[in-house]
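lol ok so funny story. i was supposed to be doing the assay writeup but got distracted and ended up predicting the structure for this chain instead. priorities right. anyway since i did it might as well share w the group, maybe its usefull for someone
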Amino acid sequence: MKQKIGNIALVVKDYDEAIEFYVNKLNFDLVENTFLNKDKRWVLIAPKGSVETRILLAKANNDSQMKSIGNQTGGRVFLFLSTDDFERDYNNLKKNNVKIIREPIKEPYGKVLVFADLYGNLWDLIQPTE
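and the output, tada:
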């Protein structure tokens, strides 16, 4: 039996502001935006070219969920965005005023930087060593 991770839920304050950030600043694709009821939507985004794993933008609907926005992993890097062109994506982050937490460095596994999304979740941008 083959398994894969299909979607990862990311708790957000507002669907539209999250879509704006991920689609317009990170250049992700808006895969789906289905209205389920007046308060709930099924919103999937994915990096360009990604076919298996997607992010489900899940709007917080209670105090406990609101407290987790931007801190789903206790302050650790949460998501790892692999790239085939580090400089292109680094320049895009700078152009769109995305907060860089740790400037690019070379590690044995590749070139990497840490950035924060609109809520403060930490991401690694990585171009793996060939």
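The CA atoms of residues 60 and 66 lie 5 Å apart. The chain has two domains: 1-69, 70-130.
back to the writeup now i swear
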